């Protein structure tokens, strides 16, 4: 017996779901029909329908804007496929692609922000306008066809609010179903900021929406406890579902157990009032906010990346990260153990957990879920199942039923190589893996060590032999360094995957880089936790004090050799592949990124050879049959033939393209746009440019 | 090139270059022998220690202006080539740390040949 009929009855009774959604849900089920014991009833027993009568909250499914001429969501469409139906640019004519215009946001690092910029911006295109944020959260509207500025709004985010980096991956747009066209704030531009505010502006004029919070702003620091700038910052666009703005935040990694809560909050998109809060430490008590004088449970896993929502089902899917102390877990709560590094589905009308799917048991590797999941109608047994594609940093790609959270393919349960000596009781004896698709490579061997000569290669071999490493999921150790492979940058990170829903192809770029870490007893370190706000430049790399845990950790992100600065492991360090959506089989796979900007001692080699570099930022796929992606450290944007994987066109960017591109149409012309802001940790420079490419007129 | 018996400027420069290269080979050899011995103790590859010994030997021989230095280094280079083939087959990026620097040194060692063959007696005095 499926749970779907129950769901359907409930939904129909509440009259909250449009007919289209019911038709869509009325498909044969695949896989197991048993609900996970972790799951709760997807729909609240008591009717929320009452609240819709005349009251402000929007609980009905809205009609959502479509991708095509517009790019109305961070992930392109509401499903986050990053697939554009535009086909003016094709493999045959892409060679003629040229810059149509370059817009400059004017937001460049000043003073203490120097060396901390990693903007990672993907603008939206709605109507005639590009709507975007800048690295420090300035909101800007400019003409999509010409690059001419319409308006800008500066929320005045201070430098000390910068967490790991000055990042604003994107913004969201919401149209009020009750407003008439032309009303102020009928369509709103919504941004969550580094200094933890949500700002709502009239998308047409840039004027703050007065009915939202206080003069168009709400303060997310409320109910979090002590305000430490940079410890709680939003870098991802919020997700809006059923008129509820849902956001988590980046909580500074590795500093202390006593860190701000990872609470997920939903706010009424019209008024900014708290609709619900999901505090895994006290879900019932704090659903409507903590009682007077209390705060949300501190140090719990957060969501720094972007969620996706199913408007018709009313679920928002949260890719959760890890607890604030990433590499030690014995003092975590049961709730933390249940929800860290898990995809959690929340019913956006109630704030209750519908189901969760954990990708790492008892994560002590900082394997946060970094990618925004993608909603697809997954082909199975000649029909389709409403599914969600979930990429992970370990390189697993899961396909889950989005109503139940059940995997559509068997989930492997693999024994770990060792449970280590630091907390063997805590370390899980098994870990899950996807049988659908894995972007994962063979465990490292001594012969995989690299260098510019036999000398530095030998030192990397010595480092390899000195380290504890028994393979995938090697737990942290203190007697010697340990190798974590893949490292915390993936597999898949925030760039996420793109899905060509016409051809049935997943396009995934990935990293192939280990980290070289060592646990150090807390009493032997006097590393200060960062309380003066902002990034020390360490961020997720370097030293993490982990105050409150018995161990600190020294992290060598990307395992770079001292002196030469070169990676200790051999290339490729990153690649891109096309995967058959239905079977999960690899269609093609190739390294991504040339060696032109890489070399020993940080000196660019200028070699045009495709080596496969570290990359961050995703792709956009167009119906014309092209993949547009930058992401790599070579500061190139390229067009790749989706059928063959061949690069057909490229252009040199002013800084690293660590940002997802977008596609849109304006004045009958198809544009490809990217904001190559560079990335401080990846050493790819900094730029305030937003570049629009098109075919010659 | 003519093999004039007069100690001309080019010949002196050639001799200095040979001595510098001999020192470079010996220093690299010492580093590889030291690190390679530690790597063997850790259970790793024997290549580096053995290559270190061969490099020290060719350095010392080159310092003495012995033609055998060229033979020893060429043998090391060939051994390195076969070791690379054995260890990483045709994974070309993996050839970079293994073969590029040794090949540059091979060219330099071969370039020493004229200087060594013209003034063999000089080696005796060392």
UniProtKB/TrEMBL annotation, chain A:
<keyword id="KW-0560">Oxidoreductase</keyword>
<feature type="compositionally biased region" description="Polar residues">
    <location>
        <begin position="26"/>
        <end position="42"/>
    </location>
</feature>
<feature type="signal peptide">
    <location>
        <begin position="1"/>
        <end position="23"/>
    </location>
</feature>
<dbReference type="InterPro" id="IPR018391">
    <property type="entry name" value="PQQ_b-propeller_rpt"/>
</dbReference>
<dbReference type="GO" id="GO:0047955">
    <property type="term" value="F:glycerol dehydrogenase (acceptor) activity"/>
</dbReference>
<dbReference type="InterPro" id="IPR002372">
    <property type="entry name" value="PQQ_rpt_dom"/>
</dbReference>
<dbReference type="Pfam" id="PF01011">
    <property type="entry name" value="PQQ"/>
</dbReference>
<protein>
    <submittedName>
        <fullName>Glycerol dehydrogenase large subunit</fullName>
        <ecNumber>1.1.99.22</ecNumber>
    </submittedName>
</protein>
<dbReference type="GO" id="GO:0048038">
    <property type="term" value="F:quinone binding"/>
</dbReference>
<feature type="region of interest" description="Disordered">
    <location>
        <begin position="26"/>
        <end position="57"/>
    </location>
</feature>
<dbReference type="InterPro" id="IPR017511">
    <property type="entry name" value="PQQ_mDH"/>
</dbReference>
<keyword id="KW-0732">Signal</keyword>
<dbReference type="GO" id="GO:0008876">
    <property type="term" value="F:quinoprotein glucose dehydrogenase activity"/>
</dbReference>
<feature type="domain" description="Pyrrolo-quinoline quinone repeat">
    <location>
        <begin position="71"/>
        <end position="672"/>
    </location>
</feature>
<comment type="similarity">
    <text>Belongs to the bacterial PQQ dehydrogenase family.</text>
</comment>
<dbReference type="GO" id="GO:0016020">
    <property type="term" value="C:membrane"/>
</dbReference>
<dbReference type="InterPro" id="IPR011047">
    <property type="entry name" value="Quinoprotein_ADH-like_sf"/>
</dbReference>
UniProtKB/TrEMBL annotation, chain B:
<feature type="transmembrane region" description="Helical">
    <location>
        <begin position="46"/>
        <end position="63"/>
    </location>
</feature>
<feature type="transmembrane region" description="Helical">
    <location>
        <begin position="92"/>
        <end position="116"/>
    </location>
</feature>
<protein>
    <submittedName>
        <fullName>Quinate/shikimate dehydrogenase (Quinone)</fullName>
        <ecNumber>1.1.5.8</ecNumber>
    </submittedName>
</protein>
<feature type="transmembrane region" description="Helical">
    <location>
        <begin position="16"/>
        <end position="40"/>
    </location>
</feature>
<keyword id="KW-0472">Membrane</keyword>
<feature type="transmembrane region" description="Helical">
    <location>
        <begin position="70"/>
        <end position="86"/>
    </location>
</feature>
<keyword id="KW-0560">Oxidoreductase</keyword>
<dbReference type="GO" id="GO:0047519">
    <property type="term" value="F:quinate dehydrogenase (quinone) activity"/>
</dbReference>
<keyword id="KW-1133">Transmembrane helix</keyword>
<keyword id="KW-0812">Transmembrane</keyword>
